From TrEMBL:
Residues 19-155 form the Poly(A) RNA polymerase mitochondrial-like central palm domain. This is Poly(A) RNA polymerase mitochondrial-like central palm domain-containing protein. InterPro entries: MTPAP-like_central, NT_sf.
């Protein structure tokens, strides 16, 4: 049974939030030089691989936020080292671990990496390191076809509406500032944060994004040996074109600041986290009891992986950490209603990591020095009040 909860928030002017968001995005969005640095870091890795006899013939394929164009300047670089296989049998986890050991040795011998960490027993074995020359954090895995497919699908989702990419960058920056974007310590990984943004944009009116089953209905876990990028592209392009045609003339006109504000209220309410699944595949909340495959293991928070069902993209979240995550969402939502939109300094402290906040402080000082007072963008002037209707659909 579906219940609809209507919450009406009365908030002050969104102009200050809009200006703050614009400055945050201009600070964290990568430029051409950032893209080149990542390309050079990928080539640096490829050169290291060619020096390892056991890895010769392998190809280097970036994936993750770099491929989907959802990365920030400070973001990690995800790379898959694809080993050639003459059969359609996936290579074993042990072989992946051994390949990564060889790669770690090559990176250390060539002196291209620092802070090298090998995590062999992770669900997906990886090497993490910092590139000495380009100062980029890199995560390397072997034959990560699911990651490559998901990244490509996200790339196409990002073409539907530019607000999606901006929302992802803003939410990830906020989550880092609140220390809830760290799966190693029981909080949300970046992939699950992207899915939460998608869910928010699926449940606004009219919807900005469709249920993801309408974009890509395959299960990437079954595509474990060969990744056909052209095939994935063709499916996504055809389905997205259909969605856009069907919704022509019904484009959601909600501003980015209002969408961003609504994101934090989307996941509030009385729904039971332990018995409910956030499903971007269906574009709605689902009950765990309605799908036996979701009952295999209990989780504190279940954000279904729409491309590897029935996996939980938020499986790392613990019970105590979920309470911390909920407090962060509640506090942000409360401050948006309670007056943070009239205080730029508070907005910056809420939305940004200290490194980005320090840059924004410089931007503000520069503007206040060089602009007439009548044109100062960040004067906390009370303006028109708005009614913001936020809808929360619970199953």
């Amino acid at each position: 049974m579906r219940k609809v909860f209507r919450m009406v928030f009365r908030v002050h002017s969104f102009e200050l939030l809009k200006a703050c968001i614009e400055d945050i995005l201009s600070t964290i969005k990568p430029g051409e030089d950032d893209q080149k640095k990542r390309s050079y870091a990928i080539q640096e890795l490829a050169d290291s691989i060619y020096s390892v006899g056991a890895l010769r013939g392998a190809t280097v394929k970036p994936f993750g936020s770099f491929v989907s164009n959802l990365y920030a300047k400070s973001g990690d670089l995800d790379v898959s080292v694809d080993l050639w296989s003459s059969s359609r049998i996936p290579i074993s986890k042990k072989k992946k671990q051994n390949a990564l050991r060889e790669l770690r040795r090559a990176l250390q011998i060539r002196g291209v990496a620092r802070s090298v960490e090998f995590i062999p027993n992770a669900r997906v074995p990886i090497i993490q390191y910092m590139s000495n020359q380009f100062d980029i954090s890199c995560d390397i895995s072997i034959n990560n076809y699911p990651g490559q497919i998901k990244s490509r699908i996200f790339y196409w989702i990002n073409t539907i509406d530019e607000r999606f990419g901006d929302m992802v960058l803003l939410v990830k920056e906020w989550a880092k500032s609140q220390n809830i974007n760290d799966p190693k310590n029981g909080t949300l990984n970046s992939y699950s944060l992207c899915l939460l943004v998608i869910f928010c944009l699926q449940n606004c009116e009219p919807a900005i994004l469709p249920p993801l089953k309408e974009i890509y209905d395959g299960n990437v876990a079954e595509e474990t040996v060969f990744y056909d990028e052209k095939h994935v592209d063709e499916i996504c392009v055809a389905n997205i074109s259909r969605f856009l045609r069907q919704n022509m003339g019904q484009r959601n006109q909600t501003s980015l600041p209002r969408l961003f504000a609504s994101f934090f209220s989307q996941f509030l309410g009385s729904w039971d986290r332990s018995s409910t699944v956030i499903s971007t595949y269906m574009g709605r909340f689902e009950r765990i009891q309605d799908n036996p495959s979701w009952l295999v293991k209990p989780y504190s928070l279940f954000v279904e992986d729409p491309f590897e069902r029935p996996d939980n993209a938020a499986r790392a979240v613990g019970a105590e950490e979920l309470e911390y995550i909920e407090r962060a969402f509640n506090y942000m939502s409360g401050r948006i209603v309670g007056g943070a939109l009239d205080d730029r300094d508070e907005l910056v402290s809420l939305l940004c990591t200290p490194s980005v906040g320090s840059i924004l402080g410089g931007i503000r000082a520069n503007r206040c020095t060089n602009m007439p007072s009548s044109c100062q963008l960040y004067s906390p002037v009370a303006a028109n009040q708005y009614d913001m209707d936020l809808f929360m659909i619970l199953t």
